[in-house]
Amino acid sequence: MADPLTRSSIYSSNVRNKAETEPVLDPADNCPVSEEGPGIENFQIIGDAIPGCKLLGCGYPVRGTSLCMFQWVRHLQDGTRQYIEGATNPEYIVTADDVDKLIAVECIPMDDIGHQVFYGELVKRFANDQNKIKCVLRGWEAWVRLFVWRT
Question: Does some domain include residue 150?
Answer without folding.
Answer: no
